[in-house]
Fold these 3 entries.
Entry 1:
Amino acid sequence: MRTLPLDRVYQFIEPGPVVLLTTRYRDRANVMAMSWHMMVDFEPPQLACIVSDANESFVPLRKTRECVIAIPPAGLARTVVDIGNCSGRDVDKFARFGLDTKPARRVAAPLLPACIANLECRVIETRLVNAFCLFVLEVLQAWVEPRLRGEKTLHHQGYGRFVLDGDVVRVPSRKP
Amino acid sequence: MRTLPLDRVYQFIEPGPVVLLTTRYRDRANVMAMSWHMMVDFEPPQLACIVSDANESFVPLRKTRECVIAIPPAGLARTVVDIGNCSGRDVDKFARFGLDTKPARRVAAPLLPACIANLECRVIETRLVNAFCLFVLEVLQAWVEPRLRGEKTLHHQGYGRFVLDGDVVRVPSRKP
């Protein structure tokens, strides 16, 4: 994987792909699927996301204040659904679904080399965690996998129905 | 337009389409383009979005605590970019771009009948507005335009480059 310049992170998150979120807490890693996220600022890149307190990843995220957000290619659709349909309480999802990991540089949560991009994140704002399970993250380090450049991403519409990236339309614009 | 059941709102926002946000303040309506938004809860549907304080819509949204979020079909790509590349300070965007409006039921901000869906929203949380320009909204009333069912949406990747909805993949899943 190659370093992704931080000022380009928004180009991966802004179009709304389903992502995987990894954590590591008390030496145990976990991964969940997530579509409720958005950009908050360009650089340093900040994101917000909703991690329900019903998710096994909630406590690790709140306690360690660290995670990795990885953007899976369309070919991982079944794995994404499988990850979303079981809990780290019951199973080691990495082993169960044959998901390779790699140590991150700035956080304890693992990278997912099978993904198009990996964002190492730190929690920077927790005021809306109690009321909305809303975390604001800052991206400390970002990676892109050159072999997966141009792979389509998945956009979830509910119950395992995903729209893939389709045609590209370009309209001249001054706005990032 | 027909009423959209509130428990289905997430299916329109979750896949990450670019949206238009309308406001009305002191009898003046405005509209901006926005890709930094996410779902926060299913029902009643709650969303979060970033409206920069550099945007003309920031003060109207903060003062009136109301807006409409509309999801444009791909055919409106040029209009979306045009809306994003000028300011309501200088121009009446509705007149300039021939954008029809209709009164909403629950808020003063106008609906956009040329869009696939329209969500009438109230601001319910402002604690992160000063630090992050982050608003949490509740959808009070939602509309869908049956003639535009199945139209593709736009996913912004920066500088007027949009990925259109493409093929649909279905993987059996228990999760909404």
Note: The longest strand of chain B covers residues 134-144.
Entry 2:
Amino acid sequence: MYRSHTCGELRLSDINSTVTLAGWVQRSRDLGGMTFIDLRDRYGITQLAFNAEDDAEMADKATKLGREFVVQVTGKVVERSSKNKNIPTGEIEIIVTALDILNAAKTPPFTIEDNTDGGEELRAQYRYLDLRRNPVQEKLKFRNRVALETRKYLDSQDFIDIETPYLIKSTPEGARDFVVPSRMNEGQFYALPQSPQTFKQLLMVSGFDRYYQIVKCFRDEALRADRQPEFTQIDCEMAFVEQEDILQTFEGMVKHLFKTVRNVEFSYEFPRMTYAEAMEKYGSDKPDIRFGMEFVDLSSIAKGHGFAIFDEAEAILAINAEQCAVYTRKQLDTLTDWLKRPQIGAKGLIYLRVNEDGTYKSSVDKFYSETELKKWADAANAKPGDLILVMSGDLEKTRKQMNELRLHMGNELGLRNPNQFAPLWVLDFPLLEWDEESGRYHAMHHPFTSPKPEDMHLIETEPGKVRANAYDLAINGVEIGGGSIRIHDRDLQSRMFDLLGFTKEEALAQFGFLMNAFEYGAPPHGGLAFGLDRLVATMNGSDTIRDYIAFPKNNSGRDVMIDAPAPLDDAQLKELGIKLS
Amino acid sequence: MYRSHTCGELRLSDINSTVTLAGWVQRSRDLGGMTFIDLRDRYGITQLAFNAEDDAEMADKATKLGREFVVQVTGKVVERSSKNKNIPTGEIEIIVTALDILNAAKTPPFTIEDNTDGGEELRAQYRYLDLRRNPVQEKLKFRNRVALETRKYLDSQDFIDIETPYLIKSTPEGARDFVVPSRMNEGQFYALPQSPQTFKQLLMVSGFDRYYQIVKCFRDEALRADRQPEFTQIDCEMAFVEQEDILQTFEGMVKHLFKTVRNVEFSYEFPRMTYAEAMEKYGSDKPDIRFGMEFVDLSSIAKGHGFAIFDEAEAILAINAEQCAVYTRKQLDTLTDWLKRPQIGAKGLIYLRVNEDGTYKSSVDKFYSETELKKWADAANAKPGDLILVMSGDLEKTRKQMNELRLHMGNELGLRNPNQFAPLWVLDFPLLEWDEESGRYHAMHHPFTSPKPEDMHLIETEPGKVRANAYDLAINGVEIGGGSIRIHDRDLQSRMFDLLGFTKEEALAQFGFLMNAFEYGAPPHGGLAFGLDRLVATMNGSDTIRDYIAFPKNNSGRDVMIDAPAPLDDAQLKELGIKLS
């Protein structure tokens, strides 16, 4: 071992010990006769002291150490005259008697400090240096704690960690698969799993009863800030359970994680809301309920007053921004422009100020009397000083736009404190969603989700209205996890594939093994999966999952540090039996 | 929840409780008026009792349940009149008052019993049914315990679990990569990692100090019984350590695993042996030291007696099979034939019986006098009743063949008790090995392994003699893990790539990121990786890793259950920009 102690562990009680430390030169201060060096490792920082009067040669050597040099020092622990109360080792320093340079370092391309001067691209290219910075290390340590506590909790609940294969079969349903040509089976391909879904269901058929895995999954999709081509799931499945059992079990897990890793205790049951209610009140299936500002439907009171835009609209939705009557015309114009950007695509924004004196000011007051406007204010529960914001149009689009506006106003008004956590179960998702492009229904969750028995009568006539035994957990407006009770009956599963437009042959070729398994005694089962990357970021009050991944890919799916993907040489392609087209 | 209790938990103390159980019909016995059913779940078996006199309809329903039906029953716990001492629930049974068939089952294609009648192929095709069998479930539960205790130990030693990417860059060094075409970067490919080697080294450069990961790795190689295209490693790396620190840390881990999971305690330090000694004494770099039978070099005494085969041989090696003088001529012929099979390729086998009366009988006694043969016996420390087996030829080949013979004799003589464990560290592996096919040196471990400083003077003149700071842990003749101290100096790493025949350009293109990282303050570091599949199998006294994998692939790399790999449709190929050749 190159050290007797780490750079984070020496205290006043160690005074007069002789110790050996190893680490990186964080900072060097040459104060004439004295040189001080901050030596850093994963565990902390310890100050090294060199006195030119005592040992000129050593002090000279010390002044020549550059930033990020790796050194080993031996010396005596002494009490510092000027103590640093900000760090746990701040009461001591080391009078160095031996100094060994283990490795030199070129000047790093950006500063290895909490606040670095390096831009995003440069830091991505030198990710191994960015990972030296304290805030980045803390994020990965946090992730490690979350993963380990997840395992402890699930183990305590009799879940078994079972590894499922990474080289599986491509299935055209859903997102695009990454595929892997097989050299031993030329012309054939494996696919990387988008999730271990069918395997975990087979494990339930096998009687494992409770399964979990923290597992990489892969989707070849266009990337966004919160999407990576490879991502990590906490993947779970249980047999002989109903939805309530699953919600209880995983609410327990999330509470355990917050308590053990964040010291946040939830003394209440997580609130629950149906998908229908979430869409009605928040226009989102993952509402941020840290704040209210629920949608108010103005249709019945705002229609029929000659304002054509409202009269023709399918929906007229409002939110009440409390104490925002002070917004100037300019502020409202800026807000309107923000909503009109193509990312949101709103046509416009109507406002209603409830003045402090009880009068009203609206952008449409030539169509509405004070009495009519008062009805709006009453419906929105607005008080003097509040500002009502109204959008209208097609129901679905208006909800989406209003959701964006609500979240934006939440940010503006400081209602979205990253250190406050508002979990919410969203229940009763629709089984299917209509896809305009392909002109058919798609599974909203996946094709293995069980419809609600009480909605089964609608399945032929109004399949879009059938609700599923499917649920999501949202925290602070982020979808953290989701799952469903699964189909465990071959006939129902087969009927589901029909509904989704599979031919019998396609269904058999792709999922025959699962349907066959259902014929040999499949128990009722269900489960869910959490996105670990998002869970960890959200628990830490952040919305950038990339920060919580040691070696993330950029928006083009590239690892710029190792420069992958890359061309293959011809011999490799030939051996695989493929050509570039 | 479909049950109040599992099938493994009811005891005499539960008598008179009303309980609900759910599980699979394991067996049904119709004894006239009484029907007994063994209900099975992951936790155990509980006997259900149906009395036709009390409830004829219910009893009738019970007799109609087939094997592997999934049922839910409610009933009263009663004491059994004829107790089954073999199972924990054997003192009670359930008088069933409600019976609900949750799912019917076709008759399974093989029996779901500890000893099944299903052949290997059939069980592979219906792996989800094979996984129901108790011995198979136990193996995966065992694996789960080993993985979890590994994490607990490493966490207690300050290791951080950090996920490294699965979509990386192909490197021609070593085994073949599986590759993944990138749709977003047409004509370019990711590779699946053969190990996270370079990433864990970068994490050391980043200062994470102690890293671990239980991670899937991929090798597109010809498969054998103990090889799978995807396999799991316990992958570890430490900074600021010397070889001794690594050996201590991971010897501690293995002891922890044996103690917590197998209740086997090692009260001694694992023995250590150099690679050179292991090859000399056992002809193997992973000797099974549960038994002796070490190689004896007869060259100096057996040469020069007119027996041309020996006189011309580079090596004459013997082992002493104790108490095997009773082997008949026929047994010896069988042994010789076994050695002559192409898998081993020996030319022949010479024997020397040490008879009980002290006389000798050898297949070559026309060349050797009793006095000469006595020298053989003395060299091999043979006593009356022992049998000396001798092979000769090229040193390397003879060692390999003798190793096979030694292991075979160990099996024959019952010296390889699967419940006895003999760990052994093998040290000082050669840095390089000569590859006849390519006519150049290959890295024996990998190109990042550090040569021993004391052998550095040989690196230009006799590179094959340079030893590495590389080590393996073998248990019972199985390589469980291995690792090395790594190079952390750019110049040395660059020199190593030269030695391995890389051009400067190739080295930079493939590993430039690592060599660059070494310029920014890389600490001394090293690590190792355990093969989890093999570790688990070996700890459980088995040599079939496939049994410890939930969904293994066959020898052609196929998953016969899901039928993968499989052809892709043309649209998918087109989107990926590739064609079949």
Note: The two ends of chain A are 54 Å apart (CA to CA).
Entry 3:
Amino acid sequence: MNQSPDTWILAAQCPSVIGTVDVVTRFLREEECYITELNSFDDRETQGFFIRAEFRPQREGFDDASFQARFAERAAEFEMNFELTAPGTRMPVVIMVSKADHCLNDLLYRHRIGQLPIDIRAVVSNHPDLESLAQWHNIPYHHFPITADTKAEQEAQVWQVIEETGAELVVLARYMQVLSADMCEKLSGKAINIHHSLLPGFKGAKPYHQAYAKGVKLVGATAHYINTDLDEGPIIAQGVESVDHAHYPEDLVAKGRDIECLTLSRAVGYHVQRRVFMHANRTVVFPN
Amino acid sequence: MNQSPDTWILAAQCPSVIGTVDVVTRFLREEECYITELNSFDDRETQGFFIRAEFRPQREGFDDASFQARFAERAAEFEMNFELTAPGTRMPVVIMVSKADHCLNDLLYRHRIGQLPIDIRAVVSNHPDLESLAQWHNIPYHHFPITADTKAEQEAQVWQVIEETGAELVVLARYMQVLSADMCEKLSGKAINIHHSLLPGFKGAKPYHQAYAKGVKLVGATAHYINTDLDEGPIIAQGVESVDHAHYPEDLVAKGRDIECLTLSRAVGYHVQRRVFMHANRTVVFPN
Amino acid sequence: MNQSPDTWILAAQCPSVIGTVDVVTRFLREEECYITELNSFDDRETQGFFIRAEFRPQREGFDDASFQARFAERAAEFEMNFELTAPGTRMPVVIMVSKADHCLNDLLYRHRIGQLPIDIRAVVSNHPDLESLAQWHNIPYHHFPITADTKAEQEAQVWQVIEETGAELVVLARYMQVLSADMCEKLSGKAINIHHSLLPGFKGAKPYHQAYAKGVKLVGATAHYINTDLDEGPIIAQGVESVDHAHYPEDLVAKGRDIECLTLSRAVGYHVQRRVFMHANRTVVFPN
Amino acid sequence: MNQSPDTWILAAQCPSVIGTVDVVTRFLREEECYITELNSFDDRETQGFFIRAEFRPQREGFDDASFQARFAERAAEFEMNFELTAPGTRMPVVIMVSKADHCLNDLLYRHRIGQLPIDIRAVVSNHPDLESLAQWHNIPYHHFPITADTKAEQEAQVWQVIEETGAELVVLARYMQVLSADMCEKLSGKAINIHHSLLPGFKGAKPYHQAYAKGVKLVGATAHYINTDLDEGPIIAQGVESVDHAHYPEDLVAKGRDIECLTLSRAVGYHVQRRVFMHANRTVVFPN
């Protein structure tokens, strides 16, 4: 299910019309590309079309630049946006954290063993606590404290790291600060947050305490793209766990760690493998 | 896990103090009652104590009236409310439905094979559609149409059926009318509703359509006691199912049927086996 | 996710070579067929290719006979077997049962509300017990008793029903007799059994009792095509439920009913929507 | 749910007779101990009784030695074995690994943040690979290579570490060697293994490859006490995950890592909190 060392990914979206699948698959055949995985979805609500193909070029000397140029002509007829991803690509990532380290620890582990095709370029935090964890994994750690007064300045520092590292994805791995609207816009479609509840239930602060007060029998976590509405961005993945009356808020916090890690790493994996498409305020996800 | 044909249930609750378990277990031993299942919970938040024992009298001629009288003395010291349930008790139930029949069908089936220790005395509906289903199971069916103008009158008819059948539990098995505050109060702790979302998410009408619009990746159902706040009563059980972008609202409706049936029948089973305790706006549930 | 009233299904399989997707999608475009759902899988182990498309003809006067004739030419180049299914097709089915009625009840319910596109032509049993259930749903019920001596004769009776009803699928909904090798061969790829364990664990008789003896913490059910090796046919779907030490065999039996129903109906749904492909002793399933 | 800083655990088992609960709860009341969590199970099959209480002494100067001495008298009447665990106890543990590090990484993390009340005294491996991981957590790492010829000698080295560290639990966190019968006996009830299948399915080597070959739709992991029958010891916990035809063996390996970690850490947590009782070849587990 993971991308093989010799497969390319073509991901594309466009308005729904007849022939959207054919324009992709015919081209791949003409280019002597062998399709190993293919997913498409035609959304009758929004008239949007989404397709993702993994393929192996069969012909010697596959040239991606000319492949793209040739496909661009076909795609133009369909107003199709597409992206081609080379074998072995690891997306540059910046991770943002505060004090809780479970999601960071999990992402660093998956990164270390190669389970997630990401290249963690930096860890940024408003606290110094997790520096040694990052260091052991040889990842630069930036401690940028934040106060109400210094928010703009701190975000500028964060943004500088994102730019300098060339990060294409920012993962908010339990970063406990609300980003400014400006930052949210700059990161639109490029930042994934983990919220520790089954959104839209229990938005905002202390969702496990809210869940306890409500007496729910299931708790969960939601990984979503951020946007300017807090905890309202397009959902990528959700996970859930049973609980009962004997779980006090701190028990929910403990129990929730596993779901948060699993849900966030799943969403990051989908994103970096180009399995996620945003449209309107929802996502199309082709899972593996 | 189901009550054995010769076991009694003692369920009790009282304020937390030392000795609350002992007062029950010591008494059972003195009465030569063999405990086959025991659950207790001491809620540090509300200082409430909850206990449930299943037991088999070992002595010939167990007399429940005198058992209750004797235990009442002990219980009084602890301000303990208790309830004793005889082997083989089937709780009298009235089921309320509208047009959707999946939950009714499921409850009738479990009733028929004896999986739920309930005695369905009547099915009440604001529509005539499900009469033949009830009839095949030999359950009286009452069709009480309702309009905005006749709500009070219709509820009076429903209440009469509840009273005449001696129902101790009303199950709202996809009854699509909002009960009046007066009716809710009369049924407090005695009526279980199934709502087709993971409360507190998606309260009110058309929750699957809300879920679709929001783009969630999990849908669910919540069985709860009703109270005067719509979809806000104490939660007994919740169930969940994965969905994706390709599930349109009508697919969620179809997929949700199974979760609704399972969640509702589970909650009803817990209730009639005296496994549920309400306190504040939450429940303590000792599952099997 | 369910087939729309105006969509056709094309399901095909062939050896893996380049162009297998294209031959299907190009043809559909040429025929002005709009693809609404597309799934394909290329099995690198067996070099088998599997594809399923749902599509809506856009051109007036779609003629399936000529469509098939034209596509057959293209398919021949790829040694591709294919099957075209018209909108609204309900597969003729015979259900076989013994005494347990939960799976039958569940299938009849889903049939009645139109959730499963099947046409239940007959229920066959070696016991008379479930006749009234079938009758209420207006399904003919055939009671064919069986003994060791009359097995061949009984199976001949069953076969006659299958033939006379034109059944294309036989569902063994807790039919507690082992079919003869001859019968298994005649029903190869056309009969789905539900076994009440997570195969390959606990084959054969009384799997819940085996599970209890082993002390497992999960029990499950497996829906599979039958073949001449008992409980060894290709698996279509599996379901699972948590249990604990307090679940005696009869509790597992009770708890397992729901999983069996859900797993069997899921497998039947996949099969009749042409979402399942058998190859070697495994299946490819494109779920919805 | 986790043991509070001031609660003691009393865990006991004995043959089933009347009064087994009472002997515990009455004593706790007499000693002015406040029960915060109580679980009991009376096994009708084996006539075994199991009880676990968490309690807070209310009286000043609780003396565990005299508590134990006094309770031992009562327990003797019931042939009851019991164990008292002080608040804040962290069980000394040795972890055995080979080359796969996911379970080790997970246990070290939970140990580091205090989620598991264990004191990891050493990591032992037949390979050198995981030394730096242990070192970063300040845990001694012993590399004891093994060959068919040196097995007895190597196990003697391992045993020496177990003895010298005072380990009360050995966790086989993907240790890929079969322990000798002698070693298994010495570790009876004190060693937990994680096997990467849903036992009893797919015992022995390469279970994910077996699962792939069989075409199952669910894979899982089983944490169990070891005994002299390979992969046959009493099961403590099992976890499961859905898979499909597109998961090749290496995908199952990747997908299985999370289940293995979760299942093993859950089993270890139950064990060290005295929530597990072995009897016959099964376990009684009182989960939290």
Note: The helical segments of chain B are 20-30, 64-77, 102-112, 131-136, 151-165, 181-186, 207-214, 249-272.
